[in-house]
Design a protein that fits this description.
The structure holds three protein chains of three kinds. Chain A is of the alpha+beta class. Chain A has helices at residues 12-22, 105-119, 126-133, 182-187, 197-211, 223-230, 234-241, 249-253, 298-316, 328-332, 339-344; strands at residues 4-8, 24-31, 34-42, 67-77, 85-90, 98-103, 135-140, 166-171, 174-179, 193-194, 260-267, 270-277. Chain A is 30% helix and 23% strand. Chain C is of the alpha/beta class. Chain C is globular, with a radius of gyration of 20 Å. Classes of the chains: A alpha+beta, B alpha/beta, C alpha/beta. At the A-C interface, strand 3, helix 8, strand 11 and strand 12 of A face strand 2, helix 4, helix 8, helix 9 and helix 11 of C.
Chain lengths: 354, 276, 317
């Protein structure tokens, strides 16, 4: 039986204070100067946690920071022999124990999808592994979604535990926090009272109620093949993506987008090789040194985005989409491109626009 | 970091530099770690990512044959940031090497067959590895023919090796785009020369590498000669960063050129989305 | 809305493609709509949720083209984006003759984030403006907002609600919400801070910039977006470090490249996922250009923006 504790609404702050002493705690909070922007931030006493809505940026930052140093290099010269130079490389990484508190099931599930790419391919990404192994996720189940949510349509659900180490369930007067593993259990020591049988029942009842909700419906059946059949239908992709600005916001807010670029920065005799978020929406993404670009316009690039998430990724990974239905791309797209329509339209004769 | 880090290059030192053409330079490097150099092994067609620290990394085929234990050879065309800098380096300079990466030519499949190499310009680089590997065991293959073309005689790479290749049993058909004083070999574009040579597809494998436009017309030519898709191999190029199938950008459909390629045959390409 | 559709239908024989707005993913979001068949004209909408500046599609690659050169491209503009259109015409990025401009006097557009800031809306059933109020009905309640509470900042400071260029005018001209005196009050609020205060303001605002370049891509005048100074490596101006210096540098370069050209249409600020007041910098520079050179962007198609030309007889500089 999983360990469950109850934290009253008026005790939540104290509990977070305690947690922040044990582990580096990240919570959803308003950005300084931009209170409407909710993103995961380092918790310190005084930070106001916002749990009633989805964050703007997903918590993928915990494991894939926007910029990280892969290598540090420097050239050392010898005083005895000025012509002799030696190059030194260092690839150390410091991974701290982190708890992301207040993610959502769609956020947590996304980590499992990224794991396939970073940990289970022909090569293992050691930087990702170090951070991943030291990060725990506590996901709050969703009482409701908004008009952009569609986790149920892509294999997830509002009370799904996939990828979570802790599940947070809203109940009368507070929350029940459920540990889904040993490490999570030890984290809960002394944070709140272990629930009574009745309390456990209530929490499970809420979970059942929420699990029965259907967040979004799109026809994703046969999308792997439907996409390929549609690949060369330029009229379809123009219909879908003509209004795209190639701005990349969709990829930045998305929990499953993981593409990055690697650039070197140098100052004098030393420098770093950096990895930073990149976007398949950008022109430079596939621009070759010869000047040739296989995806010269937004049409090809948006097509690739839909293809990657709903055709190429499921083809490689047992039918799982590289999308958890969080809806951020739909909410934040400046021109209201709805990936749900792009996908459900693959099998139709005409893309139905609202 | 003690765990094997696929992003971390091995330090290597340039031992020899050969200026092949105005824009192509060959570097012969050895890994600084002597034990790693001794133990280094790869298969023809595989690539390496060369780092110029502070500038960046680029992908090049290892174009020495696996039997060559003294150095790793890379031929570099100057087109951008990293290659520009590589062209400025000299013997004794250090670079980074991440290799071997990617897949290889199916040498096993080629045994007992005639092999037709078709190269244009820098496209000779990946083919050199395979050619030399096959020539080492000449008796295991049928006819080995190379059709190699470039804009001018000065744009042909490895000119200093042609006699050696001929003496070891390769038939060379060299061509340049137009007449040049002193040039006594063929004149004409590679696809035209291919049609003139008119090789039979029977028991033959074609390996093609060069500029995209050349590949396109060579493909037409080979189909006209009734070669089938599975008999034709090529190596593809894409913008690459990680080289290990993670960063996402070099994909053609669900395949990554950096791990599922760069060697592909046309039967595979026919079944992939046309995202080139 | 009906008037717009009728006008487009009436002009249809002369049009190959019509760029307007349609419904987005829900009733709080409009979207650009590209109409190529007369049956699709019924999908055109015009309401305060039609927020996008459509003129960028005429200039950015791949620009919308009429294949039949005898026909025109129709485009909807309000006040702010009609000025963007004039700016594009001034710089010869768009040819006026190709276009049939449908001008729509505008009372303002709704910033959905100001709505959502109150509390999330679920299952929106209807959203309509009545006088100076917005009424939104979702699955739980009907909520009422004043326009001051929900209009975008750019609309609250708007001095040009009526299109400055058009072929067909839809609706009655309207009065501006701001005057030349109060249109810069947001800039003045920052100017009123001392240097340390201003630095703190911009540090806080830019710290959350994620360099997604949405602001740049949304700007109709940033036609060089694919070859932007922010991303070129040779020469290299910006590294990939996500530090304040890089963010400041990008935003200042972007604003300076737009000085004298920016018509303050506010798209940059609207699209920013981190709600940074990006247009504010451009407003400040626009005011300087106005004060020094007596020039306002996007009004006279024959004019040349002052920073794109050199006039030896220039005074005040």
């Amino acid at each position: 039986m999983s360990k469950m504790i109850f934290i009253g609404s008026d005790q939540l702050t104290a509990a977070l204070d305690h947690l922040s002493e044990r582990v580096e705690l990240w919570v959803p909070a308003g950005a300084s100067g931009g209170p409407g922007v909710i993103r995961f931030q380092r918790y310190r006493p005084g930070v106001e946690v916002v749990l009633d809505r989805l964050t703007n940026l997903s918590p993928k930052e915990a494991v894939q920071p926007q910029v990280e140093t892969l290598l540090r290099f420097r050239t050392v010269k010898s005083a005895d022999d000025p012509a002799a130079e030696q190059l030194l490389l260092d690839d150390g990484i410091e991974a701290r124990r982190v708890l992301v508190f207040g993610a959502r099931p769609c956020d947590a599930r996304a980590f499992l999808l990224s794991d396939e790419v970073f940990l289970k391919g022909p090569y293992e990404d050691v930087y990702y592994r170090a951070r991943r192994e030291s990060t725990l996720l506590a996901a709050l189940v969703c009482r409701e979604g908004d008009d952009a949510c569609f986790c149920s349509a892509v294999g997830g659900g509002p009370a799904d535990t996939a990828g979570s180490d802790l599940r947070i369930v809203p109940v009368e007067g507070g929350v029940v926090v459920e540990a889904l593993g040993e490490e999570a259990e030890s984290l809960l020591e002394g944070l709140g009272e272990v629930v009574s049988d009745a309390g456990r029942e209530e929490a499970l009842r809420v979970v059942d109620e929420i699990s029965a909700l259907c967040m979004g419906e799109i026809d994703t059946s046969a999308s792997v093949q439907a996409f390929k059949s549609r690949f060369e239908d330029r009229d379809y992709w123009r219909e879908v993506a003509e209004r795209c600005l190639s701005c990349g916001v969709c990829t930045f807010v998305c929990p499953t987008c993981y593409c990055f670029t690697i650039t070197d920065e140098k100052r004098g005799l030393e420098g770093e090789r950096l990895r930073s978020w990149d976007s398949c929406m950008f022109y430079q993404y596939t621009l070759e040194a010869s000047g040739h670009n296989p995806r010269p316009t937004k049409l090809e690039r948006y097509r690739n985005r839909v293809g990657h998430k709903f055709s190429y990724f499921p083809e490689k990974y047992d039918g799982r989409f590289s999308c958890t239905g969080c809806g951020r791309c739909v909410r934040f797209c400046p021109v209201s491109i709805d990936i749900r329509r792009a996908v459900s339209g693959l099998k139709e004769n005409i893309c139905e626009c609202p | 970091m003690s765990v094997l880090n696929p992003y971390r290059p091995e330090l290597a030192t340039i031992r020899e530099v050969i200026q092949e053409t105005a824009s192509i330079r060959t570097l012969r490097v050895t890994l600084d770690d002597a034990e790693k150099m001794r133990g280094f092994s790869f298969q023809p067609g595989q690539v390496g990512q060369l780092s110029v620290f502070g500038v960046g990394e680029s992908t090049f085929v290892i174009n020495s044959p696996p039997s060559c234990r003294d150095y790793l050879q890379f031929s570099i065309m100057r087109v951008g940031e990293v290659t520009q800098r590589l062209h400025q380096l000299n013997v004794g300079d250090q670079i980074g090497v991440r290799a071997p990466l990617g897949n290889a030519f199916p040498v096993e499949e080629m045994r007992g067959k005639h092999i037709l190499f078709i190269a244009g310009g820098i496209g000779m680089a990946p083919l050199r590895t395979l050619l030399l590997t096959l020539l080492e065991e000449r008796e295991r293959y049928g006819e080995i023919t190379l059709i190699y073309g470039a804009r001018s005689p000065g744009d042909l790479c490895y000119r200093y090796e042609f006699e050696d290749w001929k003496s070891r049993g390769a038939e060379l058909v060299l061509t340049v785009d137009q007449e040049f004083p002193g040039w006594t070999e063929r004149v004409g574009f590679v696809p035209t020369v291919l049609s003139e040579e008119s090789p039979s597809p029977h028991n033959r494998i074609a390996v093609v590498c060069g500029p995209p436009i050349m590949i396109k017309f060579v493909l037409f030519g080979l189909k006209e000669l009734e070669f089938e898709d599975h008999q034709i191999f090529t190596t593809l190029e894409k913008r690459m960063k990680c080289g290990i199938g993670i960063c996402g950008r070099c994909n053609i459909g669900s395949q990554y050129v950096c791990v599922d390629g760069p060697v592909f045959n046309f039967d595979q390409l026919r079944h992939m989305v046309p995202d080139l | 809305m009906k008037e717009l559709r009728q006008a487009v239908e009436a002009q249809w024989p002369n049009l190959e493609v019509m760029i307007g707005w349609g419904w987005g993913f829900d009733l709080l979001h409009g979207r650009p709509l590209f109409v190529r068949k007369i049956e699709e004209v019924a999908g055109l909408v015009w309401n305060p949720f039609c927020v996008q500046n459509l003129t960028g599609y005429l200039a950015k690659i791949p620009a919308v083209q009429a294949e039949d050169k005898a026909k025109k491209i129709g485009v909807c503009v309000r006040g702010c984006d009609s000025r963007s259109l004039v700016a594009l015409i001034q710089e010869k990025l768009v040819s006026r003759e190709q276009l049939m401009v449908f001008g729509l006097p505008c009372q303002g557009t709704v910033d959905w984030r100001r709505l959502a800031a109150h509390s999330p809306l679920v299952g929106v059933k209807s959203a309509r403006i009545e006088g100076e109020r917005l009424l939104v009905e979702d699955s739980r309640t009907i909520r009422e907002f004043t326009l001051d509470q929900v209009l975008a900042r750019r609309c609250l400071r708007c001095t040009h609600p009526n299109p400055v260029v058009y072929d067909v005018l839809i609706g009655e001209q309207v009065a501006p919400r701001a005057t030349s005196l109060d249109r810069y009050r947001d800039v003045e609020r920052v100017e009123a801070l001392d240097v340390g205060g201003r630095l703190a303001f911009w540090r806080e605002a830019l710290d959350r910039c994620i360099r997604c370049y949405a602001c740049r891509n949304a700007c109709p005048l940033c036609i060089c977006q694919d070859r932007c100074i922010a991303e070129t490596r040779d020469p290299k101006w910006l590294s990939q470090y996500m530090g304040l210096p890089e963010k400041f540098l990008f935003h200042f370069i972007h604003a300076l490249h737009l000085a004298g050209r920016c018509t303050e249409c506010g798209e940059c600020e609207r699209v920013c996922p981190m709600e940074i007041p990006v247009t504010l910098m451009k407003e400040k520079l626009g005011r300087i250009v106005g004060d020094l050179m007596g020039y306002e962007a996007g009004l006279d198609p024959e004019a040349t923006p002052p920073l794109l030309t050199f006039n030896p007889a220039e005074t005040g500089v």
